[in-house]
Specification:
- Helix 18 runs antiparallel to helix 19.
- The protein has a domain of 69 residues.
- By secondary structure, it is an all-alpha fold.
- About 1% of the residues have low confidence.
- One of its GO terms (molecular function) is oxidoreductase activity.
Amino acid sequence: MTLFELERNADFEQLIRHLEASSNPDIRRRAAEILGSLETSADDDSVQGNPRSPRDEVIDALVTASQDDESDEVRAAAIDALDQYGQDALEEFIGDLSGQDLEDLAEWKKAKVLARGLTADQPELRMAAATGLGRIGEDNVVSALVDRLTDPDSRVRTRVARALGRIESPESVPALSDRFHEDQYSVRIEIAYALADIGTDNALRELVDVADAEDEVLRRIAVDALGRLGSVEAVEVLANALSDDADTVRRTAMFSLVQLLSEAPANASHQIREKIVGELEAADEDEVVEPLIEILDRSTETAQRRNAAWLLGRVANDSSTAAAQDALIETMADDDEMTSKFAATSLSLLDSDGLEQRLLELVEDDLRDEELRVKALFVLGKIGGDTSRNRLSSFVERTDSDRLRKRGFSALSKLGGVGTVTGDPA
């Protein structure tokens, strides 16, 4: 089986075997990453008579890999995977490596022990200590973390930046900003995320300035991080980045705008949503619609797909309507009900010659997905005319599906026929 299949099946036994025994460090690294991502599946129930839970087995394997694997990248990935399993898993690793039991210590005492670990000889212990301090979130360790932004090991600097972002301490912004201009790209990415998570005015200014840098990679990093802010201030910067000379920056800007919709606080959500729509309507259509379609086609993030579907119906027009319709019709069969509803609602905003006929053919095709046909009936109830009324009258009489018949009557009621009125596209 491939690693993808093992991930899909949550096959912990085989993933651990790859982590422990594969001769390929890339496979071991990826196995560690997958084991981290499966944390919620590693419950405490025993498996096939094994008295130990998958969680115990995974943590033991990751602790061993964090210490003993010959690859720096695998050891780093194993520590990050332990982070996914929580503070207890990290402390097990730190205890094994340092010889100090952290289990019964108060949080502030743990923080002091971990702060001492930042200067340990083993870089893996410094990495784990930084990660653990980020989880504890004690403000009194910020200065110790800031001091390690100059650690000789880039893996440590990366996790120190990540920890400072978790703590969200404004006092760390100047030091993070300094490193943002002189470290390697892998560290700069985490610094950018940390600045976005801290979110103070000076942190935002740093990201805005770098979004206009000459270095294409730096612009992309800054634009990526701005999507985490959830603020109106970031929208205009990201909208401007949609016309960047670099394709990677333009696409990242669109992904960030979509992500920003998800990150927006409830009390500012409507304002941010309206601001984004306004900026996208003013932008070049090709720079907006194609990336949104790409998100629907490729993204596996539910929130991204929902927001992309919602936006597409509000920014597509003229030359992009046909491509947007294709993407939305496909998305109406999405497994996520809210994504499917957003796609149907957006499609109803993009009426044009040929859409009614296309949806009628879809509804009448017994080989098509029923969910897709239900959503098509909803859209026809919004955009249909005499042709839809006549053909749907015949359709509801002959369909064997109670659900399709109900939704067909609902569409007919909106078109002037007889049925139950409902605004629910499901």
